Structures are given as structure tokens and as C-alpha cells.
Amino acid sequence: MDKRVDTTRLQEMARAYTTSAVLYTALDVSLFTHVSNGANTEAALVEATQLRPVDVDRLVSCALSLDLLDWEDDHLVNTADVDAYLVEGKGRYAGAWMMFTRADVGGWFNMTQKMREPHSSKLGMYQELTVESARKYHQATSSIGFGAARRFVKTVDLSERRHLLDLGGGSGAYSITAAERFEGLKATVLDLPPVVVATQEYIADAGVEDRVATLGADFTVGEFPSPVDVVVMASNLPIYDSEIIGGVVARAFRALEAGGEMHLIGEMLNDDRRGPVDAAMWGMNELICGSEGRAHTRAECQSYFASAGFVDIEVIDFVPGILVRCVGRKP
Ligand SMILES: C[S@@+](CC[C@H](N)C(=O)[O-])C[C@H]1O[C@@H](n2cnc3c(N)ncnc32)[C@H](O)[C@@H]1O
Hints:
Layout: H1 8-14, H2 17-28, H3 31-36, H4 42-49, H5 53-65, E1 69-72, E2 75-78, H6 80-85, H7 95-98, H8 105-108, H9 111-116, H10 131-155, E3 163-167, H11 173-181, E4 186-191, H12 193-206, E5 212-216, E6 228-234, H13 242-255, E7 256-266, E8 268-269, H14 277-289, E9 296-297, H15 298-308, E10 311-319, E11 323-329
Parallel strand pairs: 3-4, 3-6, 4-5, 6-7, 8-9
Antiparallel strand pairs: 1-2, 7-11, 10-11
Helix pairs in contact: 4-5, 10-11, 10-12, 13-15
This protein binds S-adenosylmethionine (SAM).
S-adenosylmethionine binds next to helix 10.
């Protein structure tokens, strides 16, 4: 029998923007923070948010139906992930990251025109960075990057390694976390010159200045500091095309000592490109941000490593559905 089709999925897709908008507004008015602080009825939320009762009613209906809020008897509670990541003042608060791409909304709804009249540069959004914008940017990335870095040092043993090179290291999340975990390890965070000013502030906050240094440079050109025995490049894969990523991996190979390892961590597509959606969308994001970058498949990443000369190459799920880790060893 033919599988019956209907319009449900397509209708949901056509209005998916409403979900983002509700989340942004809930964060604007600190909805989840108020609920966590005890304003857990609609009357109390009207008082706490200073919104009209009808708007609190609308927002709470949306949040309940999106599984952001739930009922416990007659009062509202945050669902588990909301409670962990969207309550201000909690250690794992990631609101800055959730809002990170909000400024791009207009660009996404102008996509057709951007495709018909392409306008790009090699560095895309990074072309115009200032120290101030880099600080703001990494306030967002650090709210998620340090969690990823903790996952990295739990899964990758660097106890025998001496020097880590962190390409596009941003807040220094991976270098700082690795230096804290592995006593004998030094690290160099290489990032664009305005960014490393912000990086130094994270390094100072963590008190690891004696072991984590910075280098202001563009990783798309020039040779890397050498020798090092680990290279990490995390969460900047879709910003660049195959030629640039292949070139970075090849120069990382040259900078590594024999026996050294490289980890490329990023949003990677499955080889048939049927997902994950998030990886495809980060590739499209580069149209909006104005670079020539795109989403890369797992097999493509593996081929950048193989062409550079790496062996024992593996492509492993890192944060399932979001980040993948490609690792190789220099013989
Ligand atoms: C999304 S952030 C990731 C930061 C960090 N690796 C992490 O996972 O938390 C991407 C970083 O790549 C850096 N980046 C992008 N292009 C670069 C380039 N050509 N040279 C150096 N750094 C670059 C950006 O400045 C930014 O800090």
C-alpha cells in the first residue's frame, strides 16, 4: 500500500522560525530564570516579567508545547535541559550561545538574494573583528566551548604530550582545559590578532599563563609554530572550503613531531549528506556570514588527513548529532 503523505511536516518547516523567536523572547524576559527562582505560576510571571497577562499566557503555552516548561501539580517547572543551560547564574548557563546567531536572522531570510548576488571574502565574518566584538563573540562560544573541551580531555589522553597547538582556539577553552588536566602540557592558542587579546583574559582568569601562550595569526597562511606534538582545530570547519582546510591540515602535519597527533573537531556531514541538519546549516551560515565556506563530509575530512600524510585516521562521534572528531597520527 502507498504510504499516505500529508502536509504536517512541511507546515512545521514553513513556520520553524517561530520556535527560534519564542526561545529568544523567553530568554529576553528571563522566563526560565524566573521559574527557577520561584515565579512558577502565570500570575507570578506577570509580576516578574512585567508583561501583560495575555502575553504571559501566550508565552507559557508556547513554552509548554515546546517542552521547555512542564507542569508539576499546579505549578510550572523548567524541563531538564532548560534548567541546566538556560537559567541565568547557573554554572552551565549557555544563553549567550543560544542567542549567538540571532543577529543573522535577517540574513537567513534574505538568502535567495545573497545567492543571486554573492558577496564573499576569505575570512567572512572574521574579516571585520575588533577586540570588543571578539570579546562578545567568545562570551558566547566559551559558554559551550569549555563543556566540549572537558569532554575532549576526558576522551583523549594527552598525559604523555608536551605541546598543544590550538588552531582558531578562541576563548582558549581546549588549551586551558587541557593544561589544567595534564600537568606536563604547554599550549599555544593561535587565533586572529584581535581575538587573542580576549584569549589572554580567559587564560589569566584560569591562572594558567605560565603554560598557555597565544599567537595572533591567520591560520590560512604561513607555517605554524614547531615542534608541537598535538594539534587541535575545533569548531571552525565550515568557515572554509576544501582547499583551505586541506592546506591547514597539511601545515599542521609539517609542524608536528613524528608520532604527534591532530584532532579536527567540527560539524561534519554524513558521507551521503543526508544529515545531520546542523552541519548542513552551519555550511549555509557561511553564505550569510560572507565566506566561501561550506559543510564538509566525514570522508572529505578523512581525505584531508590522508593527503597530508597522517596514518591511523579515525572519524569518531564527539557530541552526537553535533560535533565529530577526526584524528590522525604523523608516522
Ligand atoms: C567558533 S570559534 C571556536 C573557538 C574554539 N576552538 C572552541 O571550540 O571553543 C572559531 C574560532 O576560529 C577562529 N578563526 C577563524 N578563522 C581563523 C583564521 N583564519 N585564523 C585564525 N583563527 C581563525 C575565530 O577567530 C574563532 O575564534
